[in-house]
Amino acid sequence: MSYLQPSEFVTKMVDAGESKIFMGTRDVIIRGYMAGAILALAVVFAVTITVQTGSAILGAALFPVGFSILYLMGFDLLTGVFVLTPLAWLDKRPGVTIPRILANWGKVGLGNFLGAMTVAIIMAVNFTMGFNVDVSEVGQAVATTGESRTVGYKEHGFGGWLTLFIRGALCNWMVSLGVVGALISTTVPGKVIAMWMPIMVFFFLGFEHSVVNMFLFPLGLMLGGEFSIGDYIFWNEIPTVVGNLIGGLALTGLTLYSTHVRTQPKRQLT
Fold first, then answer.
1. Could you list the residue ranges that cross the membrane (predicted)?
2. Is residue 1 over pLDDT 60?
3. Does this model's pTM top 0.90?
C-alpha cells in the first residue's frame, strides 16, 4: 500500500496546514462548499441504507464513501483544518499567524455551511415532491434525528451540553485520523482504507460532527422537525464545534506532532 512512515506523513500534515492557510479565498470557499455538499449527500446515502435495511452498521459501513470522495478530490472540511493548520503555527512556519488560522477556519466553515445548505434544500424538495406530498420515510428519520439531538440534549441541561462537547471531541478524534489516513499512503486503495476505518467508527457510534449537523438540522427544520434554530445552534452546533476543535487537535494533531516531529533525543548506547 506504499505506507509512509509516521515522521514522513506528519511532516506532510504540517505542510498541508501551511498551504491551506495561504490559499486564496475563492479556492478555500469552493473547496469548503464542495466538501460540505458531498458529505451531506453521504449522510443521505447512509440514512437511506439504514432506513431501508434496518441495519445501522451497514449505513455506517458505507457512509465513508463520501468522506473518501471529498478528500481524494482535495476538498476541505472544517474538522480537518482544525487539526492541520495549527501545526504549521507550532512548527513556526514563516507568516503563519493565529489571525490567519482563524480566517481560514471561518472561510472553510462558511463554504461547508453553504454546501450543506444547498443539499439540504435539494433534499427537502426531493423528499416531498416539491413540498406537495408527505415527507418520505427517510426524511422523517432525518427530522426525528434533529429533534433527539437538540431538544433531547436540552432536557438534560448542562449534562446534555457536556455530552455534546464530549461526543464532538470523540468525533473529530476519529475524523481527524481519517484526514491523516489520506496522507499515510501514496496509493488510492491505501488512502481509502486508512480513511474508511475511523470514519465508520464515528458514524456508527453517533458522535457529533459539526459539518454533518450543518446539513441534518436545517433539513430537519425544513421537514417539520419540532425544534428551533436556537435549539440547533446552542444545543448542538456550538458545543459540537468546540468539541471537534479540541478533540481533533489534542487527540490527533498534537499527539502525532509531539512524538513524530518534535521527538525526544534517542538514547545513546555506550
1. 33-63, 69-90, 110-129, 164-184, 196-218, 238-257
2. no
3. yes
Q: Take residue 191 and report the three cell numbers written for it.
A: 488512502
pLDDT tens figures, 24-64? 999 999 999 999 999 999 999 999 999 999 999 999 999 99
Domain ranges in the chain are: 6-260
> Which residues share a beta bridge with 3?
185
CATH T-level fold of 6-260 = Glycerol uptake facilitator protein (1.20.1080)
Q: How confident is the model at residue 143 (pLDDT cuts 50, 70, 90)?
A: confident
Look up cell 457510534; give the residue: 205
Q: Amino acid letter at 121?
A: I
Distance CA 85, CA 21 (A): 7
Question: What's the rounded Cα separation, in Å, for the pair 153 and 146?
Answer: 11
